[in-house]
Each structure stands twice: as structure tokens, then as C-alpha cells.
Amino acid sequence: MAFALGALLLATCIVKVVRLLKASELSRAALVERQEVVFADAGPVVLCIEGPPLSRRFVRLDFALESSDGGAVAGRANWFRLRSSGFSKARLQLLTYLIPRPAAMCCASGIGLPQTRDAEHAIIFAKPHAAAAFGYVLGMVVAGWLLIGGIVLFALSVLPMAE
Fold first, then answer.
1. Of the candidate ranges 35-44, 74-83, 125-134, the one whose mean pLDDT is the lowest
2. Rg of the chain over all Cα atoms, to the nearest angstrom
3. Cα 75 to the chain's mean position, in Å?
4. What pTM value is reported for the model?
5. What does the buried/exposed string (b/e) look like for 140-154 if buried means 16 or more CB atoms within 10 Å of the residue's CB?
6. DSSP string for residues in 142-158
7. Strand, helix or coil at 42?
């Protein structure tokens, strides 16, 4: 029973955290010097970078977000940078901005000259999702305990006891 519950909970948490990452994405921009980004709602947004694992393309880059009237939007560094990684892509949260009103804004990256593998990289703006992701990770830990506990209990019930 614990094994089945753990397996079901683990699969559910994995599917939900993948859906959360996809649903939180507001916009995806190509890796260029300046990019216009339209925000439909006011509120906090998180700047993420995405590229191949172990890519050095984002090293020593500074990002700035400017409103349509030319004023800078203040960003703050995240204390806990969420990272998600797969075989072909890795994503890292860098900064959190508070968007004062729905508007088109300009994202400046200081990326310099284009390089051949820039198509594999992206700048992503997303809704903050750290708390929900943390909850799903805790769910995966509990599911692991149930899964391992179910295996141990099953093995104890099947194996003969030493006398």
C-alpha cells in the first residue's frame, strides 16, 4: 500500500512541477543585446536564463529592464536561485523585478557580439514560483520515503525470519 501511494505521489509531483515551470513562463526572448518584452499584468516577475548545461555564455552579464519612457526598473537578486536542469537545457533564476503597470519594456543584456550557439540560449521572464516548486519537492521527498518504506516492508514480509 505504501509503495503504491509513494509511486503515485512521486509521479504526480514530477508532472505537477514540470507543468508549473511551463505555466509560469510569461515571455521568452532571444539572446540579443536589446529585446522588447510586453508585460500584460503588473506585479513581480523573475528573470531567468536558459541554455545548454555548463554553458559559459551568461558569465559576467548584467541585465537591465527599462520602461517605455526610458526609466530603469529596479531588480533585486534572488537569495535562492531556482535551477532546473535536463539533458539539453538548464534554467537559472537571476533577478526579480516589480513591474509597476502593464507595459512594453526593453530588456538590455550587454551580450555583445552574436555567437554561433546563441540560438540555443534564451532570456525568460516568469511568474515567481519558488514556493510552489518547494512544495512539490517536499512532496517528492515524502513520496520517496513512502516508496522506500513500502519496498522495505514488502521485503520483510516476504523474506523468512532468522530464528
1. 74-83
2. 21
3. 18
4. 0.79
5. beebeebbeebeeee
6. HHHHHHHHHHHHHHHHH
7. coil
**First-residue to last-residue Cα distance in the chain:** 28
Q: For 110-143, what is the HEC assignment?
A: CCCCCCCCHHHCEEEEECCCHHHHHHHHHHHHHH
Alpha carbon distance 140, 80 (integer Å) = 19
What is the C-alpha separation between 160 and 136, in angstroms, rounded?
Answer: 38
Top pLDDT among 104 and 127 is at: 127
- Residue 9 has what pLDDT? 94
Three cell numbers at 88?
A: 539539453
| pLDDT tier for residue 14 given thresholds of 50, 70 and 90 | very high
